[in-house]
Write a structure and sequence with these properties.
The complex is a heterodimer. By secondary structure, chain A is mostly helical. In chain A, 67% of the residues lie in helices and 0% in strands. The N terminus of chain A is likely disordered. Chain B contains two helices and 23 strands. Classes of the chains: A mainly alpha, B mainly beta. Chain B: Keywords: Lysosome, mRNA transport, Nuclear pore complex, Nucleus, Protein transport, Repeat, Translocation, Transport, WD repeat.
Chain lengths: 625, 323
């Protein structure tokens, strides 16, 4: 990662900017350091998103039983990954060309595109050698395709030459013919040569021979290896004869083409600038000297090709070492070199996973007992968690790491910033699906606390119910009740009305629910039920003592009703409650504390007495009399 | 991966568990340095970093460390300072207020560290008077104090709690009930020792003494656990060395040190990543380096950040020797 001072374009901003302070020793700056700057580039997000889909598909798809079908399946997955890389490169190209980029951003784009291109190159080679495991014969054809795909300059040159008035007179004409030959594109080479033949009738004879040789060159996988070798041997001898006869002596271009056809290394090396890379040279060499090369033989040719091509002047770059390791079939070396060279784990994680599915990786016991595939996936997924939305992809990766995935997920998911309720719910759903009860509780508690701090009591209550946090629920219920005492009404009625069985989480919460029910009954004029409930709240000790006064005060309107609501027994109960309450208070209330309080008590006593009188009479009266 | 993320109100709790010692500590101190008024020296600093908040009481000396409690307890921050005080701040309705002030130490308090949230709200404080105090919240604004006197001769520089994970729980299936945690923490002091403390019957006892450093231990960091039977502690010292201590058995009896690296200057802080596979080290050589254990058990530097220079070089194993 590159340490950058605070970048205001990020959605999460640093409150501190990098001002230098004179009194500090050294620069007093705040550095925001990220290991993976890549994660924050828009176009790479597409890479991460789409490759995630392919990854999950691979883990979940049913394995084909037949080896060939399975192989085809895996090759398809590999091709999908590569097409995602290419799509990403396209997008970057487009984005770069559309906007006018300043120097630094342009070079960043360019750098990124070249990295993607290198990744695709390596992946493609790995697909040929490891996933598809092309045998001798088809191997060379695949390698030819590979080379053709990745040397792009050719197409520009070709277009230039073909679109000119007189192609054969174009200064790059022979370059293009040469490159076609070097890449085994015989038909295209012959087509161009025919133009030269037309323009230059004197070389017609030479052209016809060369054309014939190129047409007859054995290529293709429609025959057995031995057949192929035999044909090739004959053809090679024929070419040799024509060369030695001096057929092409008068035209140096054609002569050099013939030499190339014969696999003359020096002749091929002369076209170094056209081939541009040692692996192109390697494939050309193989095409014209060992077309039936076996996969295991590649390493020898690869090493010598690189040595010959690079010569004394240059030494191998990281990309070269990676490709060489691939040609040598050193899988672990390839992965290791890629890990070092690339700036994030995306490439090695996905490639290793694919190779693991191809059953090519032996289980290496790394120091913590896990294997390489899982190690890399864990690293990659951990990196995703530092992004505000890509973390969701990381969850699936952890899911497919059987040894440590779960515990890594538990550690990471608790640390996702829960800035919005939606995000919290998303995280919760993930935890609940995986029975991560500790994390569920923790997250709910955090949300409840947040809501409480912002005075959103209803939200806090529902979170604490979800967290099954009795203590917190009690705290919030107390707040509700306090609010009620102060304001005379409840907030968040919907929530309290629909508590259901979660009411039982804490005594205080039960009381809150029941108390609200009392109010509802009263509002619906179901007085006797309300009365019963009210009394029960006190006698069953559901109500906290501090609230009894309020409850008794609530009883007043019921006592003052025209109709008698409380029975005699109930009235006695109420009186007892009142006495219990005041007995305790007498000692405490030294001063007038509350004139209101004493007045309330007196009013209650009066109302209770009156009620008692009425109810005795009522109950004593016979029916009908 | 690590990301220090801030929002406009000051630190957001993400900075808490990622590196609650070590890297963010440097930033926090830098912040406090940066925001002090031009004249006075490094006082009153740290909460003026919160631009929208007024702070009614302050430290009277440099603030050495701040630590966030787990967000399930709300926004709670502890700070310790040269002025011998430990202050616990709480955010209510967008304003920060002091909820508790502890003045039980006789000299500078150097380090504070919150215990894993499973134990409740417990804060360990290490001081230059050699004592370590443990403040536990008992409810209703009350804090209970337990003090370990003479934990380190001359002074205690760092404290770090062990994670609330039973070693080996990844491998053995958990029983489903809440496990019986044994509370442990590590401390580093001026007696060149790292000590491990264990709570037994409500009392704190010295369980282990780890000797390897030849100068003051400046920081200790107990690595988070993924449930493997190994416990790991990182310690760094004035002598420029960083040691990784590992204990393979669950009972915590045999700790063996491995030298991570010898730096050219004093190493101030060490800090673990969330899953404890990366260790961040910062020191007087003006560098922050990241270290990872390789397959063969050796520690390799995976990158370094040159403070103030903005450049970064990916250091491979070969280049590590230049350090």
């Amino acid at each position: 990662g590159v340490p950058t001072p605070f970048n205001p374009s990020h959605s999460v901003s640093a409150g501190f900017c990098s001002r230098k302070h004179p009194m500090a020793t050294g620069a007093a700056c705040v550095f925001v350091v990220r290991r993976d700057q890549d994660i924050y580039m828009e176009t790479l997000r597409k890479l991460f998103n789409e490759s995630h889909g392919i990854f999950v598909g691979l883990q979940r798809c049913e394995e084909e039983r037949a080896a060939r079908a399975r192989n085809a399946q895996l090759v398809q997955v590999s091709k999908n990954y590569r097409s995602v890389i290419r799509a990403c490169m396209e997008d970057m190209h487009q984005a770069a060309s559309k906007s006018v980029l300043s120097g630094q951003r342009f070079s960043a784009f360019f750098f990124q595109v070249s990295i993607l291109s290198a990744m695709e190159l390596i992946w493609n080679l790995c697909e040929i050698l490891f996933v598809e495991a092309a045998p001798a014969g088809p191997l060379l054809l695949r390698l030819l395709d590979w080379v053709q795909l990745h040397i792009c300059d050719v197409d520009n040159m070709v277009r230039e030459v073909l679109s000119s008035e007189n192609p054969s007179k174009h200064k790059l004409f022979w370059n293009v013919v040469d490159i076609f030959v070097l890449q085994g594109r015989m038909d295209e080479a012959r087509h161009l040569l025919s133009k030269e033949a037309i323009a230059n009738p004197t070389s017609m004879k030479m052209y016809k021979i060369l054309d014939d040789l190129m047409k007859k060159m054995p290529l293709g996988n429609t025959q057995t290896l031995t057949e192929m070798e035999l044909k090739w041997q004959h053809w090679h001898e024929e070419c040799q004869r024509y060369l030695q006869d001096g057929t092409f002596a008068s035209n140096s271009h054609m002569e050099s083409i013939c030499k190339i056809l014969l696999g003359d290394e020096n002749a091929i090396l002369e076209k170094k600038e056209l081939m541009t890379t040692w692996y192109h040279f390697l494939v050309t060499r193989l095409l014209y000297s060992h077309p039936t090369v076996k996969p295991m033989e590649l390493r020898f040719y690869a090493q010598s090709s690189m040595d010959m091509f690079l010569g004394e002047e240059s030494s191998p770059e990281p990309l070269d070492t990676i490709l060489m390791a691939a040609f040598e079939f050193e899988l672990h070396q390839v992965i290791k070199e890629c890990s070092v060279a690339l700036s994030n784990w995306w490439f090695v994680a996905h490639l290793t996973d694919l190779l693991d599915h191809c059953k090519l990786l032996q289980s290496h016991n790394l120091y913590f007992g896990s294997n390489m595939r899982e190690f890399l996936l864990l690293e990659y997924a951990s990196g995703l968690f530092s992004h505000h939305s890509l973390w969701q992809l990381g969850v699936d990766y952890f899911d497919h790491c059987p040894e440590y995935g779960r515990v890594y997920l538990e550690l990471h998911i608790e640390r996702i910033p829960l800035n919005t309720e939606q995000k919290a719910l998303k995280v919760l759903r993930i935890c609940e699906q995986r029975q991560m009860h500790e994390q569920v509780r923790s997250i709910c508690k955090i949300m409840a606390m947040k809501a409480l701090r912002n005075n959103r009591l209803g939200s806090a209550l529902s979170w604490s119910i979800r967290a099954k946090d009795a203590a917190f629920a009690t705290l919030i219920s107390d707040r509700f009740l306090k609010d009620y005492c102060e304001r005379g009404c409840f907030s968040d009625l919907d929530l309290i009305d629909n508590l259901g069985p979660s009411m039982l989480l804490s005594d205080r919460l039960t009381f809150l629910g029941k108390y609200r029910e009392f109010h509802r009954l009263y509002g619906e004029k179901r007085f006797s039920e309300a009365a019963r409930l009210l009394l029960m709240l006190m006698t069953a000790h559901i109500a906290p003592c501090s609230f009894w006064m309020t409850l008794l005060t609530d009883a007043l309107p019921l006592l003052e009703q025209k109709e008698v609501i409380f029975s005699a027994e109930q009235t006695y109960e109420l009186m007892r409650c009142l006495e219990d309450l005041t007995a305790g208070k007498l000692d405490r209330q030294k001063f007038q504390d509350d004139d209101v309080e004493t007045m309330k008590v007196e009013m209650l006593r009066l109302a209770l007495a009156r009620n008692l009188a009425r109810v005795i009479v009522k109950e004593g009266t016979l029916e009908g009399s | 991966m690590f990301g220090i993320v801030f929002n406009g109100n000051g630190f957001v709790w993400q900075s808490y568990p990622i590196f609650h010692l070590g890297f963010t500590r440097i930033l926090h101190i830098i912040v406090s340095v940066m925001y002090r008024p031009p004249v006075c020296h490094n006082r009153n600093a740290f909460l003026s970093a919160f631009p929208n908040n007024v702070v009614s009481c302050r430290h009277e000396g440099p603030v050495w460390q701040v630590a966030w409690a787990h967000p399930m307890y709300g926004n709670i921050l502890a700070s310790c300072s040269y002025d011998r005080k430990v202050i616990i701040w709480k955010e209510e309705n967008g304003t920060w207020e002091k909820t508790y002030e502890y003045t039980g130490h006789d000299s500078s308090v150097n380090s504070v560290c919150w215990a894993p949230h499973d134990y409740g709200l417990i804060l360990a404080c290490g001081s230059s008077d050699g004592a370590i105090s443990l403040l536990s919240y008992t409810g209703d604004g009350q804090w209970e104090v337990k003090k370990i006197s003479n934990a380190h001769t001359i002074g205690c520089n760092a404290v770090s709690w062990a994670p609330a994970v039973v070693p080996g729980s990844l491998i053995e299936q958990p029983s489903g009930q809440k496990p019986n945690y044994i509370k442990r923490f590590a401390s580093g002091g001026c007696d060149n020792l790292v000590k491990i403390w264990k709570e037994e019957d409500g009392q704190w006892k010295e369980e282990q003494k780890l000797e390897a450093h030849s100068d003051w231990v400046r920081d200790v960091a107990w690595a988070p656990s993924i449930g493997l039977p190994t416990s790991t502690i990182a310690s760094c010292s004035q002598d420029g060395r960083v040691f990784i201590w590992t204990c393979d058995d669950a009972s915590g009896n045999s700790w063996s040190p491995k030298l991570l690296h010898k730096f050219n200057d004093v190493v101030w802080h060490v800090s673990w990543s969330i899953t404890a596979n990366i260790l961040a080290v910062s020191g007087g050589d003006n560098k922050v380096t990241l270290w990872k254990e390789s397959v063969d058990g050796l520690w390799a530097c995976i990158s370094d950040v040159n403070k103030g220079q903005g450049g970064v070089s990916a250091v491979t194993e070969g280049q590590q020797n230049e350090q």
